[in-house]
């Protein structure tokens, strides 16, 4: 390529063609990284692997039996975390936060990945033993027709066959009710319900859309965005009163202090939400979901009892 570019025989038309190709390559690299942020916030493939340290952690970690210790947080809220971290420390923090944490979304690589990954299977198994439901991440590109139902069904199969998940978290759900979108998500809802075992269905339009998706979901994400927007731009529609708080989940970014986190939790309670996750990460930056918030221990303690212990790193006291 270098010799071709410097060749004195190359004409202007060839040079133009090369420039066009290079620009297209650059766009193909950088644009998808931005638009696919919610699929994988670290903007790299998740590639945890079993090594000697991991094996040591496996043998030393023995989650307690939570069957007799489960309680409900005083305000009825529980934490549901879309955690796309490769840090084993983060995962152990989450396992120790049961029963306050009830759901964790697993994202191998924009979904279940192309092949079985033993580390993620091990993590899913540990989480389930601790009493936490593991959901597999699947993106739907707003039901615009670019991802056929058959492809999504294959991803659902992979999640259940490889990781024995407790349900599916459908991301990038169209935020308006159309006949096409209702048909699309109804099909996926019914397909997930046909899987053996647990079959929790979460739809994430990220806002309080019309009631059309409520009957075809177990949980709706009715807010995903910045703390500032959560304070002023949350639309608490009347139809939500027809459903229990456990049907709704709010995900709040950019709550940078403990006080802001606590304010968001209190608002979620007032708004009739049963699931909450508050993070100090940026909504459109790196690591909003690729790590736990610095105040994670304070968050779970604010919500309710913890069966394990939190690492001091995540036990921030700043306000």
Structural summary, described in words:
This protein is of the alpha/beta class. It has two domains: 2-34, no CATH class; 36-314, Alpha-Beta Barrel (TIM Barrel). It has ten helices and eight strands. Strands 1-2-3-4-5-6-7-8 form an eight-stranded parallel barrel, surrounded by five helices. Helix 6 packs parallel to helix 7 (179-193) and helix 9 runs parallel beside helix 10. The model is unreliable at 1-37, 40-47 and 49-74 (pLDDT under 50).
Index terms:
319 residues; globular; 36% helix; alpha/beta; 14% strand
Number of strands: 8
Number of domains: 2
pLDDT average, as an integer? 79
Q: How much strand?
A: 5-15%
What is the CATH fold-level name of the largest domain?
Answer: TIM Barrel
Largest sheet: 8 strands, parallel, barrel
Query: What Rg, in angstroms, do the CA atoms define?
Result: 21 Å
Q: Please give the alpha-carbon distance between the first and last residues.
A: 56 Å
- Look at the helices and sheets and give the structural class: alpha/beta
Identify the strand order in the major beta sheet. Answer: 1-2-3-4-5-6-7-8
Judging from the principal axes of the Cα atoms, what is the shape?
Answer: globular
The CATH architecture category of the largest domain equals: Alpha-Beta Barrel
- Spans of 5+ residues with little confidence (pLDDT < 50)? 1-37, 40-47, 49-74
Order of helices and strands: HHHEHEHEHEHEEHEHEH
Helix fraction by DSSP (H/I, runs of at least 4) = 25-40%
Number of helices: 10
CATH level-1 class of the largest domain: Alpha Beta
- Report the CATH superfamily of the largest domain: Aldolase class I
